[in-house]
Amino acid sequence: MDETNNVAASLQHAHVFLGTGHEKSERKTWIVIWLCGAMMIAEIAGGLLFGSIALVADGLHMSTHAGALLLAALAYTYARKHATDLRFTFGTGKLGDLAGFTSAIILAMIAILIGYESVSRLFSPVPIHFAEAIPIAFLGLGVNVLSAWLLSGDDHHHGHSHSAAHAGDETHLIQTRVGTIVVEVFEEGVPPRFRVRSEGNVRLAAESIMIETVRPDGARQRFTLIDKVDYLESLEEIPEPHEFTAHVRIGDHEAYPVQFEEHAHSHGAAHRDNNMRAAVVHVIADAAVSVLVIVGLLLARTFGWLWMDALAGIVGACVIASWSYGLIRDTGAILLDMTPDVGMADKLRQTIERDGDTLTDIHLWRLGPGHLGAIVAVKTTQGHDADYFRTKLAAYPSLSHVTIEVQTA
């Protein structure tokens, strides 16, 4: 007998698989676009007004930079606006990966153009107008540093500076009846405590939420939450080790189980926002090229080594090409539905087979930043149904859409 049951880890038939802080990333990207656009217009207008071809050239270069960021911003906006569009079977979470892949291709083309021009100038040097080129390079570097700072921001839920043991899977999204909430263990410079916040405009009441942890040895502990304006925080500290199942109960509704485990690695590919990664890579690549250009120009002016300018360009092209390759590799794997985490697949197998059942087939892929989809086929001799396995897999909060097929032997 076969039984198929489509379940989400916490909320059935939910297909909103956007990453944590999606709207904030969208806003930051648009701000940087306006900054780059203003700089581009100022450079082109100034170059035409004062007759500086170098200034015009840098302004045109800034336009390609702004274009790549525009691609990222449009992807954020489109994904958000169509997050609940039923035409997208598995939501719009992968749109950022598609934009990141496209941006990586553009980045590779820029690396080729820089490399070609640099090699050409290495064999056929041209006069350099140092008085104009050096200030422009410093100006471009300043804009890129500011852009990188704006894009990186200070999102504690993306960049914990935990010790190695806690740098892992400590931030979880839960789809609840009141919307999406984020539950995390926060310990950056403070004793470890739970923090809970809403992803939307829903105001969470501290008295309506309760967290109870259940450790592998059966020990239980309840945590009281207090209001910290932007988030709720547990009054009690979380004892070591941080390996337990946290049952988050909202009002009189069912409890949502969240699995916390000790890891020796940071957020993996399943949690990475490749759209923001591509935008940051564009900015950092441009900043790196600016630094190399400044060094090359200063050495060329001081010692008369005109070839240093071309050499700096070649090095910059190689660095950009390397970053582009890494981005193409990672986003391409996601778009082709490669298993994002082999270790996760092994854990699912162990969880399902722990009570004597057999996992006969498993497909695991990424739906969006921090969201995984899974199709599992189980053969049971214990008479277990799909709900039984759904409950077991609910301990993995990154499993946002699960299809379970149960065959009774």
Automatic annotation (TrEMBL):
Keywords: Ion transport, Membrane, Transmembrane, Transmembrane helix, Transport, Zinc, Zinc transport. SUPFAM superfamilies: Cation efflux protein transmembrane domain-like (SSF161111). Pfam families: Cation_efflux. It is a multi-pass membrane protein. Residues 30-336 form the Cation efflux protein transmembrane domain. The keyword Ribonucleoprotein does not apply. One of its GO terms (molecular function) is zinc ion transmembrane transporter activity. The chain crosses the membrane at residues 31-54, 60-78, 98-116, 128-151, 279-299, 305-328. The keyword Nucleotidyltransferase does not apply. One of its GO terms (cellular component) is membrane. It is found in: Membrane. GO terms for biological process: intracellular zinc ion homeostasis. InterPro entries: Cation_efflux, Cation_efflux_TM, Cation_efflux_TMD_sf, Msc2-like. PANTHER family: PTHR45755, ZINC TRANSPORTER 7. This is Cation transporter. It comes from Pseudolysobacter antarcticus.
